[in-house]
Design a protein that fits this description.
Number of domains: 1
Distance between the termini: 57 Å
Largest sheet: none
Strand content: under 5%
Shape: globular
Bound molecules: zinc ion
Radius of gyration: 20 Å
Structural class: mainly alpha
Order of helices and strands: HHHHHHHHHHHHH
Length: 305
């Protein structure tokens, strides 16, 4: 038989709708367990975060070839996949640079906060409760920064690189212009650091964001009860955000928690939406990698003042 994806078999074809109920919880619970197992086994957190990120990427890649969500969106057939990897490498390199610069400022602000207000973070709460609070605050920052990227033209020229795709698969999770990543990593962690959230919470939130960011872009068949789309970010919500139709593209900004979209009335439920095609209706982004890297900067000069 002509295969749409690498490991297509009659067995997987027959059971794909059943498997789809387990893919999201399997990945999120499984990788959270793997993360804490490694830490308890005494592996250095810096090494383990990178290792788990790499394992997560390859397992996602494998599942896209076992139970794809959309047979026509295979990363192996997408001519932009290499560019996606290129953007992923650039942003991975730029992130530690900005973080090492920001760490001195954060330490200074933290000291100032301790002197002025003392300890603000509820460090005596259970880990899960502290994590839930961090997730809420983190996704509020996601919401504000992401919505700004859609609202202001100068910022949109960076973010448009992420939206420049009619395909959705794991590589698109990496397709973020390094300029956007610099802004993200300088602004998003600020409230948590100013509140004095413990490092283990901030690091696990970063890990969760990787798992979740990969799942909402992955071309893995995932099914949820309708109410779940109000609770946590899902692939269906994020695909709507990648729609060509501006009505949907300018909605569902929140990262892991849709609450902020619901509160600020930018929420669209996948069951009540006609998504249409993904990508950009009027696409200004060049096809070549180098030109894409320079695009947000050169586009600034084309803006009318
Ligand atoms: Zn966006
Ligand atoms: Zn996206």
């Amino acid at each position: 038989m002509q295969k749409d994806y690498l490991f297509q078999t009659p067995f997987l074809e027959r059971h794909r709708d059943t498997i789809a109920w387990f893919t999201y919880p399997g990945f999120m619970v499984g990788f959270t367990a793997l993360y804490f197992w490694g830490l308890n086994a005494g592996i250095a957190v810096e090494t383990w975060v990178i290792t788990v990120t790499v394992i997560n990427f390859f397992v996602t890649l494998l599942f896209e070839q076992l139970v794809p969500r959309n047979r026509k969106m295979n990363c192996l057939h997408d001519t932009q996949s290499l560019n996606d990897i290129g953007h992923g490498i650039l942003q991975a390199v730029s992130r530690p640079l900005i973080q090492s610069g920001a760490i001195l400022l954060f330490a200074f602000l933290n000291e100032l906060r301790l002197q002025q207000f003392g300890q603000l973070w509820p460090a005596h709460w259970f880990f899960a409760a502290q994590f839930a609070l961090a997730l809420l605050i983190g996704s509020f920052m996601d919401y504000v920064v992401h919505r700004s990227f859609h609202t202001f033209d100068r910022l949109w020229y960076f973010h448009v690189i992420h939206h420049d795709t009619p395909h959705m698969h794991i590589m698109k999770s990496a397709r973020v212009h390094f300029g956007e990543e610099v802004i993200n990593s300088a602004i998003k962690p600020l409230p948590l650091i100013l509140l004095g959230a413990p490092t283990e919470i901030v690091v696990f939130l970063g890990m969760w964001t990787v798992f979740d960011g990969n799942m909402v872009h992955a071309n893995i068949h995932q099914r949820f009860p309708a109410w779940f789309h109000y609770v946590l970010g899902t692939v269906h919500l994020h695909n709507l955000h990648h729609a060509k139709d501006r009505k949907y593209q300018d909605s569902n900004y929140s990262g892991s928690v849709p609450l902020w979209d619901i509160l600020f009335r930018t929420y669209n439920h996948p069951d009540h939406s006609e998504m249409g095609d993904l990508g950009l209706a009027d696409n200004p982004v060049p096809r070549g990698f180098i030109r894409q890297v320079f695009f947000p900067f050169s586009a600034q000069f084309r803006l009318k003042h």
